[in-house]
Amino acid sequence: MGVVNVTPDSFSDGGRWFEPWQAVAHGLALVDQGADILDVGGESTRPGARRPTAEEELRRVIPVVRELAATGARVSVDTMRAEVAARAVEAGACLVNDVSGGLADPEMLPFVADAGTPYVAMHWRGHSAGMQANAVYDDVVTDVVDALRLRVEAAVLAGVRREAIVVDPGLGFAKDADHNWQLLGRLPEVLALGHPVLVGAARKAFLGRLLADPVTGEPRPARERDAATSAVSALAAVQGAWCVRVHDVASTADAVRVAARWASEAGAPS
Ligand code: PMM
Question: pTM for the complete prediction?
Answer without folding.
Answer: 0.96
